[in-house]
Design brief:
alpha/beta; two-stranded parallel ribbon; about 55% helix; Rossmann fold; three-stranded parallel sheet; 7 helices; 5 strands
């Protein structure tokens, strides 16, 4: 299994206790893959708690800080895609940098559009 990265909708699915999200999470952990959550994704999903299911999910995840390089690449991706969804853009550029990581999302269309706009094809898993 490649690296796994969660977008905000995946975190929301965890909090809503969606079985499809928990299945992919368990599968990743079972093969030693800790899913990655960019810090902006966490910020967009976190509402101050208690968010018990989300907190439980995050125990198995790696929270990834963003960098200037990521910010610039995400901004360029937004320009190329003609969108302002910087959080999804950060997910996309992070996934590309990780070697085409599997992106877990409930909205594969937005992720695919951003990826295509920068010439990338990412594996997607809809939950």
């Amino acid at each position: 299994m490649p690296a796994v990265i969660y977008d905000t909708s995946a975190l929301v699915a965890a909090e809503r206790n969606k079985p499809a999200l928990w299945e992919i999470h368990a599968e990743a952990l079972a093969v030693g893959v800790r899913p990655i959550v960019p810090v902006v994704v966490l910020a967009q999903a976190w509402r101050g708690g208690p968010q018990h299911n989300l907190s439980r999910l995050l125990l198995g995840c790696r929270i990834l800080a963003d960098t200037e390089e990521t910010g610039r690449a995400a901004g360029a991706a937004c320009a190329a895609a003609r969108t302002s969804d910087i959080v999804d853009a950060i997910v996309v550029v992070t996934a590309v940098r990780l070697g085409d990581a599997l992106v877990v999302t409930t909205d594969p269309g937005d992720i695919e559009h951003l990826a295509t706009s920068i010439g990338a094809k990412l594996p997607l898993h809809a939950v």
